[in-house]
Amino acid sequence: MKRLKDFKITERTPYPALTVLFIQFGDDEGTQCIVLHRAKYVIHPYREELQKLAYK
After folding, report:
1. Residues 3-54 pLDDT 10s
2. Which pLDDT belongs to residue 4?
3. What is the DSSP letter of 56?
4. How many CB atoms lie within 10 A of CB 31?
5. pTM score > 0.70 for this model?
C-alpha cells in the first residue's frame, strides 16, 4: 500500500493565505454546523489535488 510520502508532486498549485479568526465554540448544533461549513470551504480548493492523490 502506498503512503502519502511515496508520492512525488512536482506541480503544486499555489493557494492564497488564509485569515485565522479565533472563536470560542460550544458543544451544540450551531457550532457543528459552522465547523463543518468552514472545513468544506477550506478543503474545496484542494479537492482536485486530493482526488488525484487518492486515485493514483
Report:
1. 877 778 777 777 777 787 787 888 889 889 988 998 999 889 888 888 888 8
2. 76
3. -
4. 13
5. no
6 touches 53 (CB < 8 A): no
Q: Is 4 in contact with 34 (CB distance < 8 Å)?
A: no
The DSSP 8-state label assigned to residue 55 in this structure reads T
CA within 13 Å, CB half, 4: 3
**Cβ atoms of residues 31 and 25 within 8 Å:** yes
Give the Å distances, CA to CA, from 45 to 1, 23, 40, 41.
Answer: 26, 23, 9, 8
